[in-house]
Amino acid sequence: MISVQNLTKRYGAYTAVDDVSFNVRPGAVTGFLGPNGAGKSTCMRMMCSLTPPTSGTATVLDRPYSSLPNPGRHVGVLLDASAQHAGRTGREILTLGAMVMGIDRSRVDEMLDLVGLSESEATRRVRNYSLGMRQRLGIAHALLGDPQVLILDEPANGLDPAGIRWMRGLLRGYADEGGTVLLSSHLLHEVEVVADELVVIGRGRIVAQGTKAELMAATGTTVRTTDDAAFAGLLEGAGLEVKAASTGLTVQAEPQQIGELAARHQVVLIELRTAGSAGLEDMFLELTADDAREEVAA
Ligand SMILES: Nc1ncnc2c1ncn2[C@@H]1O[C@H](COP(=O)(O)OP(=O)(O)OP(=O)(O)O)[C@@H](O)[C@H]1O
């Protein structure tokens, strides 16, 4: 279990993380989502006692990370895959980790095998690793101490599609066995497939959080008709909230209610479904629009 309470980090006059609170429960994958610069890494660094908060608290397994005895045995952390010593081989890095944590060195081979680093790759210096190989090594290092909690900052960066699928399977299995996983990304699709819970951050503040099912249900219904503009008028006339979507309309109502209204007015429906993941993406972009660098540049 990870618990973050009223966490705030200021750098001079700039507030990078602003009064953030959320819990990450065992047995689930929690996706920590936000655009570039939203404050995800700063939050994770505070959870791992690497950055002191200006105010608020972060605990992992009911204690600050810094007061966990032998933390690698409890919490696996991957914050920056490129932070490993470039002059060491992957095997050396894992062996040193095993020695520091006091675990059997046989675990090194198990982890290399688990993350798919071959013997010849494991004996290559990290400076010659691709970003995907560094991520795999970072995941192996995070899992080395057989921890109950994983804190992973953008672990899918640099992984190819097969690698991303492999990582999702790994995290799903880990959570299904009771592990706690916090996984950050700036890409909704990357975490949506595997996450049970989502915490969305924008400009240092939490803008949405809940189970994926709850957030999806809140995104409403997508409807398309032969005349969307006219149907939007009918929906609004019935007191429903309507927005133009990428295709058709998004309505804050159940599909049945919309279908009944269409039937009463003899409107031809082309599409009627819960907005689902497209709706989640619209919501994510809308909630974090203030942060979007493309808009700033425009
Ligand atoms: N040491 C620091 N000094 C000053 N500002 C900082 C420092 N560390 C982070 N920031 C600022 O805090 C904000 C949040 O950064 P952070 O790295 O937490 O975002 P992020 O959500 O992880 O982004 P990304 O997806 O791009 O990694 C950014 O505007 C960043 O420039």
Automatic annotation (TrEMBL):
**Family stated for the protein in its record:** Belongs to the ABC transporter superfamily.
- Residue span(s) of domain ABC transporter: 2-228
UniProt organism field? Luteipulveratus mongoliensis
UniProt xrefs under Gene3D superfamilies = P-loop containing nucleotide triphosphate hydrolases (3.40.50.300)
Q: Does the keyword Glycosyltransferase apply?
A: no
Q: Which domain of life is it from?
A: Bacteria
Which key words are in the record? ATP-binding, Nucleotide-binding, Transport
Q: Does the keyword Transport apply?
A: yes
| Protein name, entry field | ABC transporter
Residue runs in coiled coils = none
One annotated GO molecular function is: ATP binding
Q: Which InterPro entries match?
A: AAA+_ATPase, ABC_transporter-like_ATP-bd, P-loop_NTPase
